[in-house]
Amino acid sequence: MIFWKRLKSDKVAVICISVIIVVLLLGIFAPLVAPHNPIEPHINVKFANISLDYPLGTDHLGRCVLSRLLYGIQTTVVLALVTMGATLLIGTLLGVIAGYFRGWIDEVIMRFCDVLLSFPSEVMILAIVGMLGPSLTHVVIANIAAKWAWYTRMIRSSVVQYMDKNYIRFSKVLGCNASHIIRKHLLPNVVSDIIVLATLDTGWVILNISGLSFLGLGVQAPTPEWGMMLNEAKNIMTTHPAQMLAPGLAILIIVIAFNFLGDSLRDVLDPKYSQHRAVAK
Amino acid sequence: MVDWKEGETTRNYILRRLLAIIPILIGISFLAFFLISISPSDPAEVALRVGGITPTHEAVETMRSELGLDKPFLVRYINWLVDSFQGDFGNSYINKRPVLNEMSKALPATIALAVTALIITIVVSIATGVLCAVHEGSIFDKIIRGFIFFGTAMPNFWVGLLFIWMFSVKFNIFPTSGMDGVKSVILPAITLSLTYISTYARLIRNNMIQNKHENYVLYARARGLKENTIHRHIFVNSLQSSLTALGMSIPKLIAGTVIVENIFAWPGIGRLCVTAIFNRDYPIIQAYVLLMAVLFVICNLLVDIFSAVLDPRLGQEQ
């Protein structure tokens, strides 16, 4: 496919995808890769230096920092992907329904989206976590709730655009049923419109999940999570500042990977935009 | 939400835009109120627990009627709405003081922080954006673009911690936390503004570079205008869309103070709200959400009106 060819020739995109895949694999196989138990405290080895046994040292409870980072992938990155997946699913479902069938159902969905979108998403997330109480599940729910309306509106407007295209009118005249048109003609187009945004937003969701965990509103101790680790590092900053490095860098690297990948995807999927960029450069 | 209609006057547009916020405000207030009723714990029980009273069956019932929870949902909503309109957001469960007092005590701190961050954002992003666009492709441009990329990916709570370590612990230039004089606002404001600086510096740079290839620039060159004058034209023309984006992000900036206020122990409404979440102090959370949403709507309205007034189509109608 031309899409893959173009993407493969983009070095940055290849590096980003590799980073993301490696991180995900490390997270999934954390029990096999991690040298130690991420939760069990060993007070006698607290603040151990970097050694073969503890590649990144240990924290204030003597837990292996590397193991906690690896298990943290499961919470931060995997949950961010789950959040994005759910958001896209809801957004696509409602957006396609609204855009394809129009009429009253479109009105109802869109007016509801209007109200949701009149909250800044940060406030929405805080409101939901606030009312439901601090927990990781609630953070995920809040993130989905804050984002789905965005996607619904965007997908609807792109569906409306494609509905006017001749090939879709033609399929309608031929008597193709709605599910065929949606699956074969609408979704492939809509997905390519939305994938860039979804990739960029994954970085945003990671920042959100770890940010809320940093505040203590997300993951509860002792579950390893990168924002949570930073929160623990904050309290011992004056004596052991190095504790802040590993989790912060981990977040930075994965978010950069998603952001760069999003930019590359935009160039690949939208030749007009990349031409424009070539001119701008 | 509200689009320009063909041949519509600016005044009519603004009027329609004003009317359109009424249903949105109603929707927002309903949502803010609805959220409390889906909360898994009974507010009456929470109010008793935080007051140190054992929630016996009778005590819960008394508290329910005291808080008006025994009335049907819609009645409660309308009562709450009417009270909120008069500035009465109820009393905090924790210290029994009116929520309005607590909010208005914390609000100036947040506004001071947000305004400082906004000023830093505007000055720095315009300066770097313009310089990058004028010296496009230079080393300076490349370095700044590198910074911008890190700026959008850096978690601001990490940046905040690094700042505290560097400037407060290591070099002892700024205080680590709290609100005490001008010096204490600098670190939190810079932390808060970093993400926005990255966004706007990039936006201004790209807008200006786009404008560089417009015909009016070519014409100006043909007329033999000085480079400085041309750059000024480009700057003014690219400013409008950047200003709109900036206006939209003011409420986001205020909402974004939550994390920064918590790192730097800044006594603003973000910190008030997070403390309220831990204490399950629902009236405060509710008031915070309502305040933020109203602010967001008003800012969007002002931005829309502002750009309607600035819109060049205005001249064509007259």
Give an overview of the whole structure.
The complex is a heterodimer of chains A (281) and B (318). With 281 residues, chain A is mainly α. Chain A is built from 12 helices and no strands. In chain A, 41% of the residues are buried. Chain B has 318 residues and is mostly helical. Chain B is 77% helix and 0% strand. Chain B has helices spanning 10-37, 43-50, 57-66, 73-85, 99-134, 139-153, 156-170, 183-212, 215-222, 227-255, 257-263, 269-279, 282-310, 313-317. In chain B, helix 1 (10-37) runs antiparallel to helix 13 (282-310), helix 7 packs across helix 8 (183-212) and helix 8 crosses helix 10. The two termini of chain B are 26 Å apart. Classes of the chains: A mainly alpha (281), B mainly alpha (318). Chains A and B meet through helix 5, helix 6, helix 9, helix 10 and helix 11 of A and helix 1, helix 6, helix 7, helix 8 and helix 10 of B.
Topology:
The complex is a heterodimer of chains A (281) and B (318).
Chain A: H1 2-9, H2 11-28, H3 30-33, H4 65-101, H5 103-117, H6 121-132, H7 136-163, H8 166-173, H9 178-215, H10 226-235, H11 245-269, H12 271-280
Helix pairs in contact in A: 2-4, 2-11, 4-5, 4-7, 4-9, 4-11, 5-7, 6-7, 7-9, 8-9, 9-10, 9-11, 10-11, 11-12
Chain B: H1 10-37, H2 43-50, H3 57-66, H4 73-85, H5 99-134, H6 139-153, H7 156-170, H8 183-212, H9 215-222, H10 227-255, H11 257-263, H12 269-279, H13 282-310, H14 313-317
Strand % of chain A is under 5%
Structural shape of chain B: flat
Order of helices and strands of chain B: HHHHHHHHHHHHHH
Distance between the termini of chain B: 26 Å
Distance between termini of chain A?
A: 28 Å
> Which two protein chains have the largest interface (Cβ within 8 Å of the partner's Cβ), and how many residues from each?
A-B, 44 and 54 residues
Oligomer state equals heterodimer
- Gyration radius of chain A (Cα, Å) is 22 Å
